């Protein structure tokens, strides 16, 4: 098996070398307009980011990494969908940075799968097909793990917003009913409260102070939140400011709807947990009860004549 593994590694290195030679061949190069025009443009040369082996390797591998990242982004999903998911998760990462981290996790999975495949090949003697399948599964698992973490972050942020929403909306309705404007009420909330929704209110206030209309800032707030109820809240506040309708009653009604939705979700979760609780009862407790009930009878039958 060691000879097969050495042959595979040598063949892989030879194939990579041939691909690099073909890629660097003159007939495969595309004329770069920047390189052709650059000698005729008088401009200040940019300072070199670094020198040595690391800088040379980065310059050499950057086109390949860019192609792999673009191909992976096209295979997984488009940029617009990823930007929306990152906004819903409240992540400061750009789509390029997220894909870069996803490639890193996939590379880590590839390395772990390769080490495990080599260990199993040396100890258990598994074949090449199983080793390749194991390495592929680890690499794919590393890439999907980053997607799962992003989805979990979106769900966690959604639950946190759902817990904070009724109390904040009630406080906002109380401030509006006392005579303050919605913007002044949001400023008061940002001064005395902390939380995810308070950070979103601070972002809205920053956009309004920068000169954006309140309706546009609230619309962007609705796009950044994973809750439909919060999106309806932003739309309701925007419509109330445009048409001059009473806002306190609308906010109280929305807070009541959110509390009722949370109660319904709690009842549904309790119903699901009730079904899950039957699993240990049926498969663990009930067999023990049956054994304790039948064992004395079996013992009596064995002792008897």
What does this structure look like?
With 305 residues, this protein is mainly α. It has a domain of 104 residues. The protein has 11 helices and no strands. The longest helix has 57 residues. About 2% of the residues have low confidence.
Structural topology:
Blueprint: H1 2-23, H2 33-37, H3 53-76, H4 79-89, H5 95-123, H6 128-177, H7 182-192, H8 196-209, H9 214-224, H10 228-243, H11 247-303
What is shown here, in short?
This protein is mainly alpha-helical.
Distance between the termini: 64 Å
Please report which band the strand proportion falls in: under 5%, 5-15%, 15-25%, 25-35%, 35-45% or over 45%. under 5%
Which shape, going by the Cα principal axes?
A: flat
Q: Biggest sheet: strands, sense, closure?
A: none
Continuous helix count? 11
Helix content: over 70%
**Rg calculated over all Cα atoms:** 31 Å
Coarse structural class? mainly alpha
Query: Which blocks of ≥5 consecutive residues have pLDDT under 50?
Result: 44-50
Overview features:
305 residues; mainly alpha; flat
């Amino acid at each position: 098996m060691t000879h097969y593994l050495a042959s595979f590694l040598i063949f892989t290195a030879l194939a990579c070398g041939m691909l690099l030679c073909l890629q660097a061949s003159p007939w495969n190069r595309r004329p770069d307009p920047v390189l052709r025009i650059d000698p005729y443009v008088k401009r200040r040369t940019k300072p070199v980011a670094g020198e040595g082996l690391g800088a040379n390797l980065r310059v050499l591998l950057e086109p390949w990494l860019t192609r792999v990242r673009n191909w992976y982004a096209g295979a997984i999903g488009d940029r617009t969908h990823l930007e929306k998911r990152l906004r819903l998760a409240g992540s400061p990462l750009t789509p390029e940075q997220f894909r870069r981290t996803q490639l890193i996790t996939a590379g880590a999975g590839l390395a772990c799968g390769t080490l495990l495949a080599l260990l199993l090949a040396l100890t258990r003697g598994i074949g090449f097909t199983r080793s390749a399948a194991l390495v592929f599964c680890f690499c794919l698992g590393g890439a999907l793990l980053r997607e799962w973490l992003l989805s979990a972050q979106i769900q966690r942020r959604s639950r946190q917003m759902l817990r904070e929403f009724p109390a904040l909306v009630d406080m906002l309705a109380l401030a509006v009913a006392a005579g303050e404007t919605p913007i002044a009420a949001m400023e008061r909330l940002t001064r005395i409260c902390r939380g995810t929704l308070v950070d979103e209110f601070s972002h809205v206030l920053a956009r309004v102070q920068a000169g954006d209309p309140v309706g546009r800032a609230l619309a962007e707030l609705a796009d950044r939140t994973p809750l439909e109820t919060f999106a309806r809240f932003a739309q309701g506040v925007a419509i109330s400011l445009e048409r001059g309708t009473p806002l306190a009653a609308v906010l109280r009604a929305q807070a009541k709807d959110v509390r009722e939705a949370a109660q319904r979700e709690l009842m549904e979760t309790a119903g699901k947990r009730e079904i899950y609780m039957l699993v240990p009862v049926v498969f663990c407790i009930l067999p023990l009860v049956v054994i304790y009930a039948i064992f004395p009878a079996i013992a009596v039958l064995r002792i008897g004549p």
